[in-house]
Design brief:
By secondary structure, this protein is mostly beta strands. The chain is 9% helix and 30% strand.
């Protein structure tokens, strides 16, 4: 599958976002900061508490749990089950649960893998270390009132060694209510007196806030297409919440339809369309919603069943157009107009030697024109070029995505409105987004959880839907 993008205010293209036939290659086209909601943390914890498929060890008392399997693949797995694409593993797991909840809610730094510079690991003490490192640590005796979404750490025998961690659900003047992993071999709700000597203290999430910031304008955000029922669901801000734009289509009746996004008419907002690989036709619409195509034309691409469709603003005129990558010979073929005709930009590469390469488009240097690049899922490396021609990468870096987030869905877009596209990923295992403003490896600038893991075939889209 491919994901989509469009450049924020500047209108760069969305991307070919659906499955590319037969090759395993995908394309991602290019296209607000907010403080994580404490309510989102509690909601994520409550969701895990209510999830009967993984809210306990299996077999009970074995130590086998989902959350350690999600984060620490080196732990033993003998006798443990698998679910949701995760091999369960045997370990103490209260910290793995708490980190999972924070990560899913979008807490800053909670998505940094253990061993890659992240403070949080599989030990409960790491949550105190997090608070100390980022200035959010509060001891039990400090007078601090614990807030929903905080991590509370415990020392059961007052020996000076932290033994356990949980998530604060709520607190009164006398009592703190929690949701904890590995409490009686399961996820469980508990309550404690706030003067209980077992409580060492509380670490607040770095970007914790009672409410998210309002939607930001002129920046790319996300959404998805559900191929099971042909519906689109798009949101104007980088956070979890109801769709700002949703509509039904009959696209589910077109097997293999490649969903596209882009600013086809240069009005500053992205919209959608599709390519039909069965007959080589494009169908693009200017407004968001169901209706007749604003642009439609035929090509001979049906004779090239492995073609990877891409969209972008190749000539800097403020309008997105289309093109394709041929994985059989590593060539790109791009056209500046929304019609049939010869390529305005074409060049050869050696990408055919990299099976599974994820094709990316975006304006990496802010010059107003989209160019290409790729992500190599075999080694987790990015390779991006600023011009539409063969040559070395202008931007290249290594990540741990190939091992830490197997099957990550790569997305691109202008998340902060600076006129330059950057990258991010969606994790199908837990429905979380992780986006970064700068090109390079590092912690996510935006992260949040969704319930999209329940729709494993969802096609992830990015674009500036409101164009404001």
């Amino acid at each position: 599958m491919s994901e989509i993008r469009a450049a924020g205010r500047r209108l760069t293209a969305g991307l070919a976002a659906a499955l590319v036939v037969a090759t395993g290659l995908t394309a991602v086209m290019s296209s607000p900061a907010f403080a994580v909601s404490r309510a989102a943390i509690v909601s994520a914890a409550q969701s895990e508490l209510d999830n009967g498929t993984r809210n306990h060890e299996s077999p009970m008392g074995s130590g086998c749990n989902y959350y350690t399997g999600f984060f620490r693949p080196w732990k033993p797995s003998a006798g443990c089950p698998s679910s949701g694409g995760v091999q369960w593993r045997d370990s103490d797991w209260c910290a793995d649960f708490a980190k999972y909840v924070w990560r899913k809610a979008g807490v800053k730094h909670a998505d940094v893998p253990e061993g890659s510079g992240g403070v949080l690991d599989g030990w409960a003490a790491s949550f105190k270390n997090y608070g100390v490192a980022y200035g959010t640590w509060h001891t039990r005796g400090s007078g601090y009132t614990p807030q929903p979404g905080d991590a509370v750490v415990f020392d059961w025998d007052q020996s000076g060694d932290i033994d356990h961690v949980g998530i604060v659900k709520s607190a009164t003047s006398s009592t703190v209510h929690t949701i904890e992993g590995n409490s009686g071999d399961r996820v469980q709700s508990n309550s404690y007196s706030r003067t209980n000597p077992d409580i060492v203290g509380y670490s607040a999430p770095v970007n914790g806030s009672s409410t998210p910031e309002p939607p930001q304008e002129g920046r790319d955000s996300t959404g998805y297409y559900n191929p099971a029922d042909g519906t689109f669901h798009l949101r104007d801000s980088l956070d979890d919440g109801a769709s700002n734009h949703a509509w039904d289509t009959n696209l589910e009746t077109i097997p293999g339809a490649v969903v596209l996004t882009g600013d086809w008419n240069g009005d500053g907002s992205d919209s959608t369309g599709y390519y039909n690989p069965a007959d080589g036709t494009f169908h693009l619409r200017n407004p968001l919603g169901e209706g007749t195509s604003s642009y439609g034309w035929d090509t001979g691409l049906e004779s090239m069943p492995g073609a990877v469709i891409v969209t972008g603003d190749w000539n800097g005129d403020g309008k997105d157009s289309t093109g394709y990558y041929n994985p059989s010979d590593g060539t790109f073929h791009l056209r500046d107009n929304l019609d049939a005709g010869g390529s305005n930009h074409a060049w050869d590469t050696d990408l055919e030697t990299i099976p599974g390469a994820v094709i990316l488009t975006g304006d990496w240097n802010g010059d107003g024109k989209d160019s290409l690049g790729y992500f190599n899922p075999a080694d987790g490396t990015y390779h991006l070029r600023d011009t539409l021609d063969a040559g070395g990468s202008n931007h290249a870096w290594d990540t741990a995505l190939e091992t830490d987030v197997p099957g990550a869905v790569i997305v691109t877009g202008d998340w902060n409105g600076d006129g330059k596209d950057s990258v991010g990923y969606y994790d199908r295992r837990d429905g979380t987004f992780h986006l970064r403003d700068a090109l390079g490896d590092g912690a996510s600038d935006y992260a949040w959880g969704t319930a999209l893991e329940t729709l494993p075939a969802a096609v992830i889209l990015t674009g500036d839907w409101n164009g404001a």
